[in-house]
Amino acid sequence: GIGASAGGIKALQEFFAHAPADAGAAYVVILHLSPDHESHLAEVIQKSGSMRVTRVVQAEAIEPNRIYVISPNESLAIADGHLRVADVTKPEQRHSAIDVFFRALAEARGPHAVCVVLSGTGQDGAAGLTRVKAEGGLAIAQDPGEAESGDMPRNAIATRMVDLVLPVAEMPPRIVGYL
User: What percent of the chain has pLDDT over 70?
Assistant: First the structure.
């Protein structure tokens, strides 16, 4: 699971430019999106690497070597090897979409879960990251000095549960090595 908000597009492009297409991992991107605008995130990420990118609009089986992106005003959960979409019904859910997904990821994948907190404002991702760690997974934060907006990585690091603080380009090989 990869979470980002402000400045996260650039970080995501860098991440997927360095992610091997055949490592067997599935990546789920949770980006804070305005509910009022159409998202082109899937197309932007697709240009950054060679893995297939899918915008999740209905229940979707999770397949290796694939990238899944959230739709605006939606939240994602995991059940029975599928990503499940739900409408965001409360404003506070929009600001905690990363935490919601990281918690679901931790419950579904346990020690096989990896969460990444990239550039963004606010605290989203920090609480969910602690759940991933409690279930034995790996937690990574972008080096705040590299991030366009370092709030989210700094808040993640402040939990003292982050395993690695790295520049974005170094994350994919470390994830592959972990898995």
Answer: 93
